[in-house]
Structures are given as C-alpha cells and as structure tokens.
Amino acid sequence: MTTDEASHDAIPKSATVFEVNKHSLQNTRVNPLAFTAPMAHNDVLLRVDKFALTANNISYGIMGDSLGYWRFFPSTDPVHWGRLPVMGYAEVIKSKNDQILVGERVWGFMPMASHFMIVAGNVSQNSFSDISPCREGLSPLYSRFDRVNANPFYLPQNEDYDILLRGLFTTSWLINDYMSDNQYFGAEQYLITSASSKTSIALAFCIKQQAQRPVIGVTSNENKAFVASLGCYDKVISYDQVSQLDTAATILVDMAGSKTTLALIHHHFSEQLKYSCRIGLTHHQDIDINDNNTLLPGPVPSFFFAPSQLAKRSKEHGATATMTLINTALLGYIDFCKNSISIAHINDFEAIDPAYQAVLAGQANASVGIVVHPNG
C-alpha cells in the first residue's frame, strides 16, 4: 500500500502512553494520546506491537536529564512527566513519506505506548531515522529504526528475545571490545557487579567466548544459585564476600551503580583496580549521580558510552562488518538465553505498572524476561 492509499481509518480512535514522574519514578500514569492534527510531510505513525521492559529502562529514567533520555519522546507535561524509551517492534500504519510504506515492520527505540509519531528522515534500504527537532544533539544510533524485511539476521521465532536482549547485548559486546582494544588495561580478571542483570550476563557471555580473562560475578545471596547455573561466570560471590577476594589486577564493570559497593571495591583493590567502568544503575536506591568519585583509591570511575566504541569500530572496519560481527554473536547469545531465561507476556496495558514497579524495586525474577503487548 502506498502513502496516498493509506486510509484515515488508520488513525487510532484511542491510544495510550505509560508515563513516569521524572522526579519520583515510582509514580506512574497511563495517559491518552491524540493524533488529531493533520500529518505533515515525512510524518510516520506507528502502532507498537511489543516491547521489552528491563532494568535498563529504569537506568534511562534515572539518567534521563543528564543523558537526554527524556528528550526522545517528550511528554505533554515535560517538567513533571517522562516517557521511558524501550526496545520494541512496531508497524507503520500511516505514512507521509513516499519511501516508507504502510504495513512495514520496524525495530527500534520507542515509548511505552500503543502508538507513536515520528518525523522520518535518513531513509535507506535498511533503516530510517526519527529526525524530530527534539532529537537534535542526541546519539543518532538511538534514533534509527531497522526495517525488519532488510535485516538478514531477523528470525520471527527470536522476536521476544531480540527486543529483550539486542540493545543490552550490543552494549556488552562493545564493552568487551573496548577492553580488548586497550589490552585490558593490564588487568588479569573482570569483576562484574549485579551479575544477575541481563546486561551483566551478556558481558560475561561475550568474555567467555574469547576466553581472554576470567570473570567474577557479584550478586545478591538470593541470586547466587541462578547466576552460578548460567555457566558464563568463572566464580560467583555475594556482595558481602568482596573483601575476601585476592587483590589481583582487575577490571571492574559496575552494573549496580551502588555508591556503597563501588567504594568497597575501590578500597579493597586500590591500585590493583586497573579500570573502573560504570554502566548500569540496578541498585538505584543507593546511588548519587552527583557523587565525587575522584576521592576513591584507584582509577576514577568512568561511564561507558557504547556509541563511541561502535563509531570507532565502524570507522576502522566498516559499519556493515561491525554490525555483522555483533549480530552473529547475538544469535548465539539468544540461543544461550533460551535455556535459562523464560518470557512473561503482558497483554493488558493497565497491567504494565505492577511489572514496572517490580523492576524498579529490583524484585523482578532474574530468570524471566518481560515482553509487553500494548495493543493486546
């Protein structure tokens, strides 16, 4: 169906979006969306088929102001309310761009909503981007929508795991690539906090494939058995066992974000900590994003920005070759996860909040991935 053949009936009669209070993330609301204004040139309306909900999305909320995550899909009340970005699949239901057809299925960053509108640009055979003014200055990586029919790695049976894992796996692959690129900063081993998080598991998986450095996972006592059962960590300890570790030359990858845990590890390893890499904020109840970590012994903790390493690798080896490496590795990781992580489906938009609150409180089952179908 061409753009001009798209019927006005495609405009949803009732659409909704899940929003969180930017200053108090536990407060949420489901707000109506209205698409009553005439669509302008290059406007594209998408219907969300499914999206994944993970601890990464909570991190987006915590760092929403400092890293710009609230700007991707602005609320009608942007001072108080925000729309968390999620990874999902959506279908084009109305298009004012001649190169984007109604019925196309896409993968990318989207709001926790039943529908959303973008301004399409940078259209290619493989993808197109949202070039809305609110995206100015944000990483173009997060503005791109992959056209499913052009993705040689797409498998329908992998969709749920793809949206659950692809974004975080790409980050993890790039972390390990960055460390390898820098000769592991002279370290002999990895120490990964919040070892039960899906990003941590992905990183441990990537490291294990290369078998370059042993990996120690740090997790809660409740999750030790699950983490150990995965087989991708060489050793699994609880947070209260950190001080018992030998002080070998170590890379810390901190997915927890806890200022208490970060200080404990820095003081224990001191100068034997060769690199301190900050990624996640799964322990957001104990964070202080304005904390001055320059006073900690050892290296100053540094936040890892995946798009920078991706851009470097793409420049060196070409974007196609780099993404082929990542996506080939992702297929292996999805197969690995199918044996250890099950999928819980949410088909009622009103039921999103209980799942969100469990993830926010750190009480979600680490062995279960949450996939939401906002249109039932």
TrEMBL record:
<dbReference type="Pfam" id="PF11017">
    <property type="entry name" value="DUF2855"/>
</dbReference>
<dbReference type="InterPro" id="IPR021276">
    <property type="entry name" value="DUF2855"/>
</dbReference>
<protein>
    <recommendedName>
        <fullName>DUF2855 family protein</fullName>
    </recommendedName>
</protein>
